[in-house]
C-alpha cells in the first residue's frame, strides 16, 4: 500500500510482464468474480449487478449465436427484447484489474493507438484488432458521447469486415422531434437484429423488458429521494460500481429489479434509523463528469479525513423518465417511443451530444437536488467534449447555487497518469476550503 499523510492507497505491481493474450471473460471471473465470492454474506448482495453481468458474459460460451456487440450508451433493452446477450467491450475495461488494463493499453500503443484515445476503448483495441475478442452476430453502435466513440466504430468495422453494423444517429435535441427521429431508427434497429440473428421480435417480450426497465427506473428514483436526506443513508461510493453496471448494462432484466428492491429496503431501514453511510457526514459533494475507479480509497480518504460524502456521480445517475403507459398492452409504437426516450436520456450519452448546456444544467440539477456544498469536475483527460463545458459549469454553479467547483485532470482507469495520492493532494485544499466555509473542523 502507498501512503498519503498516513492514509493507505493501493499499490500496483508493474514489474512483471503480463500475458495479455488471455480470455478476458476468464480474467474477470478469476479476479473480480472470485473477489465477490469472498465478500462477507451480509454485504455480498450489494455487488449482485456485477455478478449478473459476469454470468451473462459466461453464458456467451454456450450461446455464441446470441452475441450482440453493444455500445455502452446504446440502451440494452433492445438486446434483451431480442433475447440476445449484450457484449460491451468497454465494460471489460471498466471491471478489469488495473495491471491488466495498463498492459493492454500499452499493447495498443505499441500498435500505434494514440495516447489521446480513451483508455476505456484503448484497453480493448489490441485484443479486438488481433482477433482475440469473440465474433459478433450483430453490432449496435451510435454516434455519442464523444469523438473517441465515433472512432471506435471504425475499429469495430475494420475488425469485423463481414459483419454489417447498425449505427444509431443520436439526435441533437431532446424535443419530441428528437424522440421520433430516434424511434424510427430503433424500428430499423429491430429489423437489423432480426436479419442478423435470424430471430423474430416477440412483442410480449419487448413489453416485458420495457416494463422491467420502467420499474428499475422507478425504484432508482425512489432510492434517490432518500439520498437527499441528511445524513445520506446510502454509502454511495461503495455501490458506485454496481450502480454503473446496473444502469449501463442491465436495464430491462428481472435481476436488476430484484436488486433494486433490496437496495430500496436497505435504504429505507437506514433512513428510518437515521444512519448515514459508513462514516459521519459533514459535507456533501457531487462528482461531475467522471470519477476514479482504479482506487476507491480516494472516496474513503475524503470521508475519513473531511466527512465529505459524495451524494451524486454525474455519469452514473438516471435521467430516463419512463412514460406512464400500460406496458402489458402497449403497442409497438408506444414501446419504440419509450425506448427512444431511454436512449436519448442515457447517462453520459445525454451530456456528450447536442448543446453542452445539457452537461451544465444536469450538474446544476444534481448539486441543487442533493444540497451539495461543492462539486468536483474530475475530467478524464481524453474526454475532450465535456472538458469544453468545465469553466462555464464552474461559473454557473457559483452564480446560481453559490458553490465552488474543483477542476482537475484524471484518468479514470490508469493510475500512471494521475495517481490516487496526486488526486487527493488536489482535493485536500479544496475540501479544506469547503470545511472552512461551513465552519466545521475536518
Ligand atoms: S465519453 Fe470520455 S470516458 Fe466515455 S468513451 Fe468518450 S472519452 Fe472515454
Give a brief rundown of this model.
This protein is α/β, with parallel strands linked by helices. It has one domain (2-438). Helices cover 52% and strands 11% of the residues.
- Topology order in helix (H) and strand (E) letters: EEHHHEHEHHHHEHEHHHHEHEHHHEHHEH
| Mean pLDDT over the residues | 94
Oligomer: single chain
Percent in strands? 5-15%
Q: Can you list the strand order of the major beta sheet?
A: 4-3-5-6
Low-confidence stretches: none
Total helix count?
Answer: 20
Bound molecules: iron/sulfur cluster
Let me know the largest β-sheet: 4 strands, parallel
Shape: globular
Helix content: 40-55%
* Strands, count: 10
How many domains in all?
A: 1
Distance between the termini: 24 Å
Radius of gyration (CA) equals 21 Å
The helix/strand class is: alpha/beta
Description:
This is 2-hydroxyacyl-CoA dehydratase. It holds the Pfam family HGD-D. InterPro entries: FldB/FldC_alpha/beta (IPR010327). This protein is α/β, with parallel strands linked by helices and 442 residues long. It has one domain (2-438). 52% of the residues lie in helices and 11% in strands. It contains 20 helices and ten strands. It has helices at 24-38, 41-44, 48-59, 77-81, 89-95, 98-110, 119-122, 125-129, 147-159, 176-197, 203-227, 240-249, 254-273, 297-306, 332-344, 349-352, 357-369, 384-387, 390-401, 420-438, and strands at 2-4, 7-9, 67-70, 85-87, 138-142, 165-168, 283-289, 308-313, 374-380, 405-410. The strands form three sheets. It has a four-stranded parallel β-sheet with strand order 4-3-5-6, with helices on both faces. A four-stranded parallel β-sheet has the order 8-7-9-10, sandwiched between helices. A two-stranded antiparallel ribbon has the order 1-2. Strand 1 (2-4) and strand 2 (7-9) form a beta hairpin. 48% of the residues are buried. The mean pLDDT is 94. Bound molecules: iron/sulfur cluster. Iron/sulfur cluster is lined by residues 118, 120-121, 145-146, 148-149, 352, 380, 382-383.
